[in-house]
Amino acid sequence: MSTSATRLLRERIVLIFDFDDTLGPNTNKTYLEHLGLSYEDFSARAAKREQEYWQSPLAKADLLREYSHREDSPVNRKSMEELGREYPLFPGADKMVDCLKDYAKEKDEGVDLEFVLLTAGFKTIPESSVIGKQFDRVYGGEYEFDREGRILCARRVISHVDKVHYIKQLVEGLDLDKASELENTYIDHDPQNNYVPMAQVIYVGDGNSDMSAFQIVEEGGGVGIAIDPDDDGEWENYEDMSRGRRVHNLAPADYREDSELIKTLKLSIDMMISRIQLLRLGKGK
After folding, report:
1. 20 to 30 Å CA-CA from 121: which of 4, 62, 140, 264?
2. pLDDT in tens, 127-167
3. What's the CATH code of the domain at 160?
4. 71 inside domain
């Protein structure tokens, strides 16, 4: 029987993925090495700026702006997009979306899977990648380019803390292009209008940099899955993390069909489909 006492029914599951060291290797490192430039020099210069209290995304974006304005520089929009189209994703990542959508359809044709890419890096390369084209939505930092494709500045940055705002407002169904605006942050929102319950959100990230995102998803009843790109079973400073930031599983960066990671994702989907089916009974469906 359907009553106002039953929980919100939304027949969708939202899977949110980080990009760097989650779906593929570090973007800046891969890009600079692809162009034959020193990532070690770039990283050292970025670290020096961060010691001077630059925000990390802004420090890296401004350095790339400098690189792009050097004479005959290969750092430009075109080379980023070209690398994106051939980006070396982790094994099986290019087949992951279809694999999980087919799996969910077999379990329950009425449940939709939505895939969202949310990166604290800049989205030009991920958005151009094979998997970026497969995702329903892509959010990340953005560059402003001039007519020659050189970087003028960063026009949007997403810090690791900002990811919490994006996840929260995605759940609420608000405009993510205004995720940090006051009208989104302080809006009086009725949870009954939510786009999806947090309990039907899966967040996949690579570790320490995604701790705040893991926490908000896990505390809301969703699933946090951490990627171990080095496959060593460890996170730096793991023992010092609060319990709220622990995750359901830490799995190697292998998206092939029989991998631990895909099994973890399927089990998470199973759990959420069962929740949806239970809520259907409560709504009299």
Report:
1. 264
2. 999 999 999 999 999 999 999 999 999 999 998 888 998 99
3. 3.40.50.1000
4. no
What's at 103, amino acid-wise? Answer: Y
Number of folded domains in the chain?
A: 1
Residue 146 within a domain: yes
pLDDT at position 8: 80
Task: Look up the domain containing 134 and give its range.
Answer: 12-25+89-282
Helical axes 56-68 vs 39-51, angle rounded to 10°: 130
Residue 83 lies in a domain: no
Per-residue pLDDT at 99 exceeds 90: yes
Closest CA to 125 of 32, 44, 218: 32
* pLDDT at site 183: 56
Cβ atoms 248, 223 nearer than 8 A:
yes
Q: Residue 246 region, left (φ>0) first, then alpha (ψ -120 to 50), else beta?
A: beta
Residues 6+ positions from 253 with CB-CB distance below 8 Å: 21, 22, 90, 91, 227, 228, 229, 231, 261
CA distance 120 to 59: 13
CB 19 within 8 A of CB 104: no
For the chain, give the number of residues: 285
Pick the closest to residue 275 from 223, 212, 225, 213 (CA basis).
Answer: 223
Mean pLDDT of 215-240: 78
| pLDDT tens-digit series, residues 35-81 | 999 999 999 999 999 999 999 999 999 999 999 999 999 999 999 99
For residues 55 and 60, what is the distance between their CA atoms, to the nearest angstrom? Answer: 9
Residues 224 and 203: beta-carbon distance below 8 Å: yes
